[in-house]
Amino acid sequence: MNYDIPEELQAMVDTVKRFVKQDLMPISQQVEDEDHIPEEVIQTMRELGLFGLSIPAQYGGLEVGTLGECLVYEAMSTVNACFRSIIGTNNGIGSQGIILDGTEEQRERYLPKLASGEWIGVFALTEPEAGSDAANIQTTAERKGDHWVLNGRKHFITNGPSADLATVFAVTDKEKRARGGITAFLVEKDFEGYAVGTIERKMGMRGSHTSELIFEDCKVPVENVVGGEANIGQGFKTAMKTLDKGRLTMGASTVGSAQALLDLSLEYAQQRVQFGKPISEFQSIQNMLAEMATNIYAGRQMLYHAAWLRDTKAKPVVKEAAMVKLFCTNMANRVADMAVQIFGGMGYMKEFPVERFYRDLRLTRIYEGTDEIQRLVIARNLLKGN
Ligand SMILES: Cc1cc2nc3c(=O)[nH]c(=O)nc-3n(C[C@H](O)[C@H](O)[C@H](O)COP(=O)(O)OP(=O)(O)OC[C@H]3O[C@@H](n4cnc5c(N)ncnc54)[C@H](O)[C@@H]3O)c2cc1C
Prior knowledge:
This protein is α+β, with helices and mostly antiparallel strands and 386 residues long. The protein has three domains: 7-116, Orthogonal Bundle (Butyryl-Coa Dehydrogenase, subunit A, domain 1), CATH 1.10.540.10; 121-233, Beta Barrel (Butyryl-CoA Dehydrogenase, subunit A, domain 2); 237-383, Butyryl-CoA Dehydrogenase, subunit A, domain 3. The chain contains twelve helices and nine strands. It has helices at residues 7-24, 28-34, 39-47, 65-76, 81-91, 96-101, 104-116, 235-271, 283-312, 318-343, 354-363, 371-383; strands at 121-124, 140-144, 147-158, 165-171, 182-188, 194-199, 210-221, 273-274, 277-278. The strands form three sheets. A four-stranded antiparallel β-sheet has the order 2-3-7-6, with no helix packed on it. The protein has a three-stranded mixed β-sheet with strand order 1-4-5. A two-stranded antiparallel ribbon has the order 8-9. A hairpin with a 2-residue loop joins strand 2 (140-144) and strand 3. It is globular and about 80 Å long. Flavin-adenine dinucleotide (FAD) is lined by residues 122-126, 131-132, 156-158, 202, 210, 363, 366-370, 372-373, 376.
């Protein structure tokens, strides 16, 4: 086991940390209030190459590897998780289908646009009747000449309103479904029959937008089946493989937010005076600080280890990625709860970012697979001897 950070990667992470401090910190509250990330900040993200962190260099990405991507997300999520979210789909679920299973022609056509941030890529699997039970999707695709015709409605799609390209999963064989009957399609926003539906109102993650995507006789050229003709019916596998990496990077994001909450709590506990002394002198407050730090340490180590396993291809990381997501997201939610407790009434007020972290972190136990689904994945792998 060795996850020393190469010098070049460390320099890149240091640049991101400076960007976070100088450009993101000062506007974090504004983004929360206005539910909008200013265009000039998104432009700086493009210039830093953040939309293409995970995309191979030959298609214009930075190709920093899983550990590199995790370090960047950790840094970005110390301020506001919506900043990670805007670049997250291009690096993760919005591009992985093409990277893992796309044809060379699809990679050349789409990856440079995603890597530069010129286009936003999204992942459209979830539907009103198919969340955890993703194999139950109702969206259909029917072959008509040189096109597939898609009909259906996706919901809860991250970056849906600004999407230029969606990896959309549809049923091509009702009998087979997940076992050879679901196909992945690359759908551009200008294709006939594609529309953005309702923009969903959420508990948190302001600045990151989620919406329905609607397909009404949406015409998709046959060459836009992910992986081409040979991959018709293989879309469910593509979806599952795509989600594995997302589970690691989600872990990274929660470690970053948990660290920020610990730092805020340490500072507040030493300043806030009750009964004539800083509350940091009370043992019950110290216990919470110790608990937070210990949990963050554990989460960070398992995250880096699983990222290293994935980068070195030492073994498949399906089980480990699910473990990282389950542990880190729950850990960060516990840390957020303790931070609110340490801040007392102030933890419930909007003067401090603690309440925002508390709301934003709650989502991480739900999307890209709930806690319960991660446990299913872990148990299934254990029982298979993996
Ligand atoms: C803000 C947000 C952004 C999202 N972004 C995207 C996106 O970009 N693309 C996309 O495709 N999807 C996206 N999703 C969808 C997300 O992945 C799903 O919400 C999630 O997988 C859960 O599905 P569900 O909401 O339908 O809940 P359900 O599946 O209805 O689950 C409800 C409860 O039942 C439990 N449950 C379900 N099945 C089982 C089981 N077999 N065993 C034990 N417990 C079970 C669940 O764990 C949960 O506690 C997003 C969701 C949100 C909220």
